[in-house]
Each structure stands twice: as C-alpha cells, then as structure tokens.
Q: What sequence folds into this?
C-alpha cells in the first residue's frame, strides 16, 4: 500500500525508489533542535516526541509518521 504525499514536490530516494512519506517539511535554523511532531499538530494526531539529528544540507525522516524534514539553509560553520 502506498501512502500519498501531502505535498506535490515529493522527494524520491537516492536509489530511485519512491518514498512513502506522510509529509515533507523544509526547516531552517529557527526550527532547531529538530523534533517531531511539530507543535502545530492536534493532540489526537500525535506520537511520542522524538528528536531527530540533522546535518547541514541533509534530510531526516521521522520513524513514527514518516515525515521528511530537510534543512535548507546553512546553519553550521565549516572549520
């Protein structure tokens, strides 16, 4: 069974297979530390809060709801 994406710009896996994502969210430095579910979710529509490690220009997927988060802007300094 394939879960439809909420957004129209659904990313695909690096190996070419489609991902079954619940949603896709671009995040910025203001959203760090990254955790899911977001505060805008209703209480009935949540799962336990998990903190997701994210690196510069990377993506993380929530293990509970399959929401993909992508860090879009530079946050960390390269040294």
A:
């Amino acid at each position: 069974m394939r879960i439809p994406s909420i957004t129209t710009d659904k990313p695909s896996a690096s190996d070419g297979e489609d991902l079954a994502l619940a949603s896709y969210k671009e995040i910025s430095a203001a959203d760090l530390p990254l955790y899911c579910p977001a505060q805008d979710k209703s209480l009935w529509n949540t799962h336990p809060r998990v903190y997701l490690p994210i690196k510069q220009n990377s993506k993380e997927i929530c293990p509970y709801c399959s929401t993909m988060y992508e860090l879009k802007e530079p946050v960390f300094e390269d040294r």
